[in-house]
């Protein structure tokens, strides 16, 4: 059992190191030695968990969606809003998440690595929530959850990218707030719309409440 | 004069070759020799126009906005919609545009190259049009042209990227149509809203009319 725990910790340490290196150097320029040095693990340990650079990149890509974990909300639209703000906030400080986003976005990520996977995972997770929102009567009858979700995932990707290029992501919260201000009136019923919180600092506040709950 | 014309043509040939090579290989893996071979020009001609790989990349980045050229419309919101669809349509076939977009999006583009420049150019061009739309009474009083434009540029960037990752951009027209269906009700007055055309094949139709007009 202790051995299994150690293996889980080692795997995580490798993933975090790999995320940081992929974030800084991109797929092509990253070498296994760079990851080894950063993770402070042996070559044997790394190859035990990840037989190749491709498999390491894929694992980093697959780690993206858990970073959207937020407390469940009675209003499912609020829960979706919270996920976007929390991911935005975590992008500021978490290099595994940043590396994962870079691999998904950079065209250089080779075709042997499925960089469409996080897009599909986000779409799957968010569509389930938006379908729940529909069942609960939060959505206008014209809303099409699958289309709205595809738009959200694509827009979020580009908005964080533009925010990174222009302000090193300092204005990401504000940009997400603008996104929601434009989209929500087209999908939410008025009674829900008025109660939603999509202000720029929403991510920081949700993360704060998570930390308080954990302490 | 003939000499000047030749110089303009050579410069364009180099830019188009560079765009194609940047699109296929990204910034880091692209070499000047690859561009020379593709453009079929001499080293001297290339260095006359572009003294370095950085300056070549910057010129490719700066070529992006002219690809949004569309016929002026009485309704300025329609003109903005047309620009997005025409750029989407041209991304399918134009490798200079594709290379320019890749340089703007890829994190590997070095800090000596200003890859925020096309974002700023788009924002500038579109804000002027949206301000005109406001003056003409097309916008709801709550619309904020600068914020809407930043959202459009960021969302377009991510939507084309997701479309490339999942369908090699085959569904880009549909995705743009979904974007507009979500945003327009939050910014356009109803009388304008009903007359706008943002169907998925809008880009193909606008380009067709441009070709007919030119023939």
What does this structure look like?
2 copies of one chain form a homodimer. Chain A is an all-alpha fold. Chain A has 2 domains: 2-56, Arc Repressor Mutant, subunit A, CATH 1.10.10.60; 65-214, Tetracycline Repressor, domain 2 (Orthogonal Bundle). Helix content of chain A is 72%, strand content 0%. Chain A has 11 helices and no strands. Chain A has helices at residues 2-29, 32-39, 43-49, 53-62, 76-91, 95-105, 117-135, 145-167, 172-187, 190-193, 202-214. The radius of gyration of chain A is 19 Å and the shape is elongated. Chains A and B meet through helix 1, helix 6, helix 8 and helix 9 of A and helix 1, helix 6, helix 8 and helix 9 of B. Chains A, B: Residues 31-50 bind DNA. Chains A, B: Pfam families: TetR_N (PF00440).
Keywords:
72% helix, ArpA-like (chains A, B), mainly alpha, 2 domains, Tetracycline Repressor, domain 2, transcription (chains A, B), 11 helices, 215 residues, homodimer, Arc Repressor Mutant, subunit A, elongated
Layout of SSEs?
The structure is a homodimer of 215-residue chains.
Chain A: H1 2-29, H2 32-39, H3 43-49, H4 53-62, H5 76-91, H6 95-105, H7 117-135, H8 145-167, H9 172-187, H10 190-193, H11 202-214
Helix pairs in contact in A: 1-2, 1-4, 1-6, 4-6, 5-7, 5-9, 5-11, 7-8, 8-9
CATH architecture of the largest domain in chain A: Orthogonal Bundle
**Biggest interface: chains and residue counts?**
A-B, 40 and 40 residues
**Shape field of chain A:** elongated
Task: Give the termini distance of chain A in whole angstroms.
Answer: 26 Å
